[in-house]
From TrEMBL, chains A, B:
The keyword RNA-binding does not apply. Homodimer. Keywords: Amino-acid biosynthesis, Diaminopimelate biosynthesis, Lysine biosynthesis, Methionine biosynthesis, NADP, Oxidoreductase, Threonine biosynthesis. Belongs to the aspartate-semialdehyde dehydrogenase family. This is aspartate-semialdehyde dehydrogenase. One of its GO terms (molecular function) is NADP binding. It catalyses: L-aspartate 4-semialdehyde + phosphate + NADP(+) = 4-phospho-L-aspartate + NADPH + H(+). It is an enzyme of class 1 (oxidoreductase). Residues 1-103 form the Semialdehyde dehydrogenase NAD-binding domain. The lineage of its organism: Eukaryota, Sar, Alveolata, Dinophyceae, Suessiales. The active site is at residues 111, 224. The keyword DNA damage does not apply. One of its GO terms (biological process) is lysine biosynthetic process via diaminopimelate. Pfam families: Semialdhyde_dh, Semialdhyde_dhC.
């Protein structure tokens, strides 16, 4: 988030790093130079205009409402704590920026949802979506830095015929596929899968949107990919969809099969825009449907970039 | 195929290895001991009861009909050369064994199709499928031994920050996802994707079955996985589906989320049965639909095992 703030030249006057007592006093290299970490307190947080929360759900549940209690500090929460609260907006600025008008606590969506939403929102506006079916190809770094280490070290060991114990993932991830991200719910779906359903409906403001997801962890490092099938209300052609997507903010159409050009983690990593391609007529929803493939950097669009975009949008509406 | 013949104690009296002139005379270690490769000729092939073809489509196109021309030698072709010929049966023995009655040339289906078919056929019989939507997670060995080497060597290099040139795959596969297997067709789908559509319809004997596929190569070594969404004509519950699948031949239900048990390449590799799990009510097709996940060894069910099962079924019907 600090890197994105700096890269986008967010007009900040001071960067304050708040963490637990344990980390207080530590020095940290940032894009803004060496900074010392301070111990978190509600009062110190309230002295800032924006608080970007990269904390656990339980920490956010306790402290986010306290911080915004001063009636002026904006809290952008990356946890899932408030995403489903009716009075807390869940925002992808390119989609539902106005949902945060007059609100101080704003929830940042799940990474898989945010990436799909970039491609689906322009299509929803023009062709009205009825059904969305998503299968994901999610990178190890979605489980944090330890997930990344476990994949890299595990792969190194696997290539030598050794076994590296899995702790972050439910099973060894190197050269494997794990259809299990987050905990299982009573309906047989994982929480990660239901987040895609719930959050897409909330961000799009349409509870009637039928959506389903299979969330799968695969041995990639960064950027999530998703195979998406949609049924639309209005008739849609790949050409019409491509035209709509080619001018959509936050989207890059990468769709030239003849040149072997389509979305991939290799090219989507460290990119702000979500890559969308493999756009073709659905063979099961005709003539009102499409199949497509997306790849997006889940650490950017799915987290840091989206949080900073929320802050930028809020800043523009602040009284000067 | 030789290993599977041996493991299943196929009652063969002689194993004959036929290859090009270039390989003739070479000695090869097999499950039946050291064997010398002979130069292929139609006459030599015709001296056998069964010919298992692991050759290119063009070779099969030329020679398969010549071999069966003697009116007695059975040719089981692993290429796609004859899969869509109206008078050549495309067979998964557990599904449409009777399609090969009176036929000498029999086509072995595409690996991705065969794996999905094992899970879908029992459901089709009981609940009648209307729509099938498949997203695949396909292993490097689907592109042959060189694909496997390119993944392993490429991964080794990638871990050291080096780049290993990709030749087998369209892009580097290590830690990447490539939504491109086989060549692109004019409708925007790849041939691999259309094989799943055409072959499922042919094997199930139902041209009205709506089917779509996104075929994706991922950095795994062996066993393909597939996320599948189905719409059925009759109402279906996960429990009813599980009951049907638990007695289906060639299928192993692996579906106990509480125990972190679901299909994975790690457990499906080198297994005859296709693993089926994550069975849950579809959230887009209600109450007539399911989401499920399958993993199957594409070298066994998708190739060698299926070919040998075809031979076994033919053998049982041969005049003694």
């Amino acid at each position: 988030m600090i890197e994105v703030l700096h890269a986008r030249q967010f007009p900040l006057t001071e960067l304050v790093l708040l963490a637990s007592e344990r980390s207080a006093g530590k020095s940290m290299a940032t894009a803004y130079g060496e900074k010392q970490v301070e111990a978190f307190s509600v009062e110190r947080a309230q002295s800032c205009d924006f608080v970007l929360m990269a904390v656990s759900g339980s920490f956010s549940t306790e402290f986010s409402p306290q911080i915004t209690g001063n009636g002026k500090t904006v809290v952008i929460d990356n946890s899932s704590a408030f995403r489903y609260h009716e009075d807390v907006p869940l925002v992808v600025p390119e989609i539902n920026e106005s949902a945060m008008d007059g609100k101080l606590l704003i929830a940042n969506p799940n990474c898989t949802t945010a990436i799909a939403a970039m491609a689906l929102w322009p299509l929803h506006q023009h062709f009205k979506l009825k059904k969305i079916i998503v299968s994901t190809y999610q990178a190890a770094s979605g489980a944090g830095a330890q997930g990344m280490t476990e994949l890299e070290e595990g792969t190194r060991q696997a290539l030598e015929g050794k076994v590296f114990p899995n702790e972050v993932f439910a099973h060894p991830l190197p050269f494997n596929v794990i259809p299990h991200i987050d905990s299982f719910q009573s309906n047989g779906y994982t929480k990660e899968e239901m987040k895609v359903v719930w959050e897409t409906q909330k961000i799009f403001g349409d509870k009637s949107l039928a959506c389903s997801c299979t969330a799968v962890r695969i041995p990639t490092k960064r950027a999530h990919s998703e195979a998406i099938t949609i049924e639309t209300e209005k008739e849609v052609s790949p050409e019409a969809a491509m035209e709509v997507l080619s001018t959509a903010p936050g989207v890059q159409v990468v769709d030239n099969p003849a040149e072997k050009s389509y979305p991939m983690p290799l090219t989507a990593t460290k990119k702000y825009d979500v890559e969308v391609g493999r756009i073709r007529r659905s063979l099961v929803f005709q003539p009102c449907g499409l199949d497509l493939f997306v790849s997006g950097d889940q650490l950017l669009r799915g987290a840091a970039l989206n949080a900073v975009l929320i802050a930028e949008a809020k800043l523009l509406k602040m009284p000067r």
